[in-house]
Amino acid sequence: MTKKRGIDLLRDRKHSKSTAFTKEERRKLGIQGLLPYAVSTQDLQMKRILANMERKQNNVEKHIFLSALEDRNERVFYRLLIEHIETLLPIVYTPTVGQVCKEFSAIFRKEKGFFISPDDKGDIQNMFSCWPEEDIRVIVVTDGERILGLGDLGANGMGIPIGKLALYVAGAGIHPEQCLPVMLDVGTNNKDLLEDDIYVGYPHPRIAGDEYLELVDEFIQAVQVKYPRALIQFEDFLTPNAYKILHKYKDKVLCFNDDIQGTAAVALAGIYSSARITGRDLKDSRIMFLGAGAAATGIADLLLTALMKEGLTSDKAHDLISFVDIDGLLVEGRRNLMSHNIHYARQGKEMDFIEAIKTIKPHIIIGASGAKGTFTKEVIELMSELNERPVMFALSNPTSKSECTAEEAYTFSDGKVIFASGSPFDPVEYKGKTFVTGQSNNAYIFPGIGLAATICGAKRIEDEFFLIAAKVLSEQVKEEDIKQGKLYPSLNELRNISIEIAMAIIVKAMELDIAREYVPKELREYIEEYMFDPVY
After folding, report:
1. How many degrees, rounded to 5, is the angle at CA 398 between CA 394 and CA 401?
2. Which of 110, 218, 332, 504 is found 20 to 30 A from 199 (Cα to Cα)?
3. Are residues 287 and 420 in the same domain?
């Protein structure tokens, strides 16, 4: 409901229906003569929008077009995204959002989100009063230092929180006005941005050390005061900072890191699904990671938990997991090991990727390297020699950073590989068979986590929630998907998947006595009643 009338109503993105206002509504609301004669249905508006979008020459232009639509008519935008999620997700989020972030300053059109710089130190809590909404439930925040596989994009990284929150709304029904994208604009060490006169961010080198951590802490404490029920999702922080911030706050405030924990859950779900093809239990699988950053070690940490729940000791679980980075196999005694991956260092000599595969003979390889083409023909053929059905995940995104393409994976393995990717790939025809690549997309996980936290008023996000989410997601994969080698369900089922994940997590939160809100027994109906419905 709104008291706005006339042109103010038509310019209100929450309440405008544009040409869908009826003749009677136009008379009552003072908008006669401000719209063309014809009254459109929302269905007709969507048809017109899709046709106009197809006229755009590339996906960045389509992204800009959809962003402008959201600014004009929020409900049409979200209905379009919900009903065409498989088509539009690659435009609204990965892989297109990577290029959008690179061009963010150049294509900046309209204010979106909340920007905090070092100049704001000491005033962040007061600044939040400038934000027009009071009941914030989900915040996605980045400092722009490690945007996807693209590196330091500074304030241009704001495209990530904006895109993620669009998926919270479309994928889990979180209300748009309850979402807040935040950029901790602490500077950039990207020389090109610092020399770019149209760069919209804080034009100084990044602050670091105590100065950086104090600003992060002030932001988090201000959220606790202003938006005490808000879930904070950390996104695209550099690995050392990502772990430092997560470990400091995860038991104190309602928060999680999607790159570490969300990526882990969706990858583990894919591994669970792959077992339906290979017939090999998780506890019998050797898993090798290419890349040793936040995403890879986050997956490994959740794998350890899953393996130990299947009865393995910590030592035996560690024996099944190995890491290779740019310098080769992580082994004890290497000088450049980081605190988050030092406990995965193996005994033995140093060796390169190929030698490590030959020596360890992994059943599963997970690429989170951010390095294009590192799953070479030799790597894929070697994995196919060692395994009847090798499992290979090329998780780096955007597409330009993928360890290999779907076509390369299926061709070089002679159709044997069980493949998933972080970016979308078209189906591959090989020797008369169609292979459909499942996208290991965090959108399967984080909306359900946020929905659960919002519904039950969770005090914190437990590590176990991500194990639960992985199991629930894998259970949504249908037999016909498995027959095509697809390890994830259709994105068209995203809202239902989010409900299933939310229900399971809410039950666990209540068991752990960390749910602050009363939740009735008719849980599904209660959740569905809350969820944002964009239809008018």
Report:
1. 60
2. 218
3. yes
Q: Annotated catalytic residue: which of 78, 93, 199, 227?
A: 93
Question: Using CA atoms, how far apart are residues 137 and 223, in angstroms rounded to an integer?
Answer: 10
For residues 282 and 216, state if they share a domain.
no
What per-residue confidence (pLDDT) applies to 320?
98
Distances (CA, A) of 218 to 118, 121, 225, 227, 437: 11, 8, 11, 14, 43
Domain tally, the chain: 3
- Does residue 378 sit in the same domain as residue 421? yes
- Give yes or no for a contact between 422 and 94, defined as CB atoms under 8 angstroms apart: yes
What's the maximum distance between 2 C-alpha atoms anywhere in the chain? 80
Residues 351 and 383 in one domain: yes
Measured distance CA(521)–CA(408) in Å, rounded: 49
Mean pLDDT value across the chain: 96
pLDDT tens, residue by residue, 181-196: 999 999 999 999 999 9
Q: What is the CATH number of the domain that holds 31?
A: 1.20.1370.30
pLDDT tens readout for residues 87-106 = 999 999 989 999 999 999 99
- Domain interval for residue 378: 277-443
93 is an active site residue? yes
527 in any annotated domain: no
The strand pairing partners of 290, in sequence order, are 324, 367
pLDDT of residue 2: 86
What is the pTM (predicted TM-score) of this model? 0.95
What share of the chain in percent tops pLDDT 70?
100
249 is catalytic: no
Using pLDDT thresholds of 50, 70 and 90, give the confidence band for residue 149.
Answer: confident
Considering the candidates 102, 164, 226, 250, report the single residue annotated as catalytic: 164
Query: Degrees (nearest 5) of the Cα angle 330, 249, 443?
Result: 70
Q: What is the 3-state secondary structure (H, E, C) of 451-480?
A: HHHHHHCECCCCHHHHHHHHHHHHHCCCHH
pLDDT greater than 80 at residue 1: no
Residues 152 and 32 in one domain: no
* Residues 281, 249 share a domain: no
Which of 300, 302, 303 has the alpha carbon at shortest distance from 289?
300
Region 207-229 average pLDDT: 98
- 506 domain residue, yes or no: no
